[in-house]
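S.,

Sequence below, as promised.
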Amino acid sequence: MSQNPESEALRKDIDQLKRDLSALAETYKRSSEQRAQAGIDSARGKYDELKREANRQTQDLGSEIESRPFTSVLAAFGIGLVLGKLIGR
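The prediction came back faster than expected:
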């Protein structure tokens, strides 16, 4: 039993549509994965940048304390007193 030409053309169109949708889904999946990876890479870059900045500021603070130990102790004592009064309320 042979199918008529219209049915055969419709079957071929449906098969092509299935392939096209499959290709589109795969392209979307790859695009999503690439965007996710780009976001991860960006977050890692920001983390590394913040980590370097925190280390730099820590070193700067250490240098400041070493160059002015007496002033640093007085400042820490004053901050401690203020925090103690605020927390004690």
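The two ends are 95 Å apart (CA to CA).

Coffee later?
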